[in-house]
Amino acid sequence: MSGAMEFPERFNMAWYFLDRNVEQGRGGKTCLYYKDEGYTYREVQARANRFANALGSLGVAVEDRVLIVLPDRPEFAFAWFGAAKAGAVIAMVNPLLPADDYAHYFEYTRAKVAVVDESTLDRLDPLRETFRHLKHLVVVGRNGRHPSFEGLLESASDAFTNADTHRDDPAIWLFTSGSTGKPKAAVHLQQDLPWNTERYAKQVLGIREDDLTVSVPKLFFGYATGSNLLFPFAVGGATALFSERSEAATLFDVIERFKPTILTSVPTMIGAMLNHPDAARRDLGSLRCVLSAGEALPPELDRRWRERFGVEILDGIGSAEMFHIYISNYPGQVVPGSLGRLVPGYEARVVGADGLDLADGEPGTLWIKGESAAVLYWQAHEKSKAVLRGDWVVTGDHMRRDASGVFWYEGRTDDMLKVGGVFVSPLEVENCLLEHEAVAECAVIGYKDADGLVKSKAFVVTRQRQGDDALARELQEFVKRRLAPFKYPRAVEFTPSLPKNDRGKIDRRRLEAAGPRSEDPARLTL
């Protein structure tokens, strides 16, 4: 690709994202902000080198897994780059998970070393003896039983020569969202993350040395690992981290304090910030753009955001299998309601049920091709064969491409509802409902009635108005007037909030399991 870096055979991604900044004279630049702390590139490199040396002293060799279980704080970056320098394979999980989930991840990754926050020990210590492959639990913060991250860094040298890895060596596992069953790891190579960075971050986002990033999703999620750590570091930029839970008020405070130029977000938080009572008084003037991914961005939210804050949202789609965004709106070329165009270097097909390519305008399953694709799912050979088909990745996303090359999201292939023999897109109904002044959030799912027939149901969070039978009927009529009449939700349920997973997406599986379905126009509790 024109203008993109070519990666030599002997290649370590820590050099690409971190060490180059020191080599190119940016060692003294502050690149990482956290609370009242600031770290320069040289300081981050020194701490990463120390941790790489510490991993060697703990018996970690090239290709051994290192599991990172940390909130967004500087130690995450030190551990991530240190593990990369050592040639270890990085795996990252949420530090807020329940104990049973940790039991799965520790067994599944077979990590020799895990770097965890002190806040996780109440869940991890009772399980410690069951972690058959783990040699060392390294703790950030106070603890009396395990090696201290701070202590290891203090006793290690800050000089380190990166592991002599090949560009095709395994480098990182990125976990799928796990909508069905336990999340699986998509295995990526040393060149995969830099390859996408060269194309999406540089050629689409246009990230620059003077950019500073802030993220709603946390760093354990590949979407944020890229946009809030790796992308700014790849161009000598900076990031600001916060370990608190991502809530609207917190985001406003962080933006006003650190003055970021790029905010990585998700539609749920975009809606929450718009609906916050102080939204009109908060200052987002430092932002030049907002990134949105993870779930579809309703056009109504996009319109309200631009009217309120005057900042462009670049909606796009990516996946753990491809590392990051491969279809995106471009700055100054946003097509509201769409996912935009292919990122340079990627190719796409829209495929029908018969496996043949569809004409423009016809919806089908998106297949994507690009050199950032994972090589396999760990311990999932059949799934690997079903999804990773030669150079192509079968995404499971229902999509159509128009004649101008713009892609439009129709929902997940397995989320499409067949109501009365006709397919209905939950996303289309959700976008319609969000245009109603009383609706703050909504989600549409399928359920079976007493006769076993599939019907659609809307879960609705109201803005201020009381959710009752009258409003339920009003919303149903609202959809009938704007969409084909058969697409209206047969049931409407009002709820104070919608369940979210650890990536900020609406958790539809929990909605589907929320209890018996009713044809009543409104039930007031979830």
Descriptive report:
It is a single chain. With 526 residues, this protein is α/β, with parallel strands linked by helices. It folds into two domains: 13-401, ANL, N-terminal domain (Rossmann fold, 3-Layer(aba) Sandwich); 416-523, GMP Synthetase, Chain A, domain 3 (2-Layer Sandwich). Helix content is 29%, strand content 25%. The chain is built from 15 helices and 27 strands. The strands form five sheets. A nine-stranded mixed beta sheet has the order 2-1-10-9-11-12-13-14-15, sandwiched between helices. The protein has a seven-stranded mixed beta sheet with strand order 6-5-3-4-7-8-18. Strand 25, helix 14 and strand 26 form a beta-alpha-beta unit. Helix 9 crosses helix 10 and helix 10 (267-275) crosses helix 11. The longest helix is centred in the N-terminal third of the chain and has 17 residues, at 41-57. The chain is globular. 49% of the residues are buried.
- If helices are DSSP runs of H or I spanning 4 or more residues, what is the number of helices? 15
**Cα gyration radius (Å):** 23 Å
CATH architecture of the largest domain: 3-Layer(aba) Sandwich
The termini sit apart by: 51 Å
User: Which structural class do you get from the secondary structure elements?
Assistant: alpha/beta
Helix content: 25-40%
CATH superfamily of the largest domain: ANL, N-terminal domain
Beta-strand share of residues: 15-25%
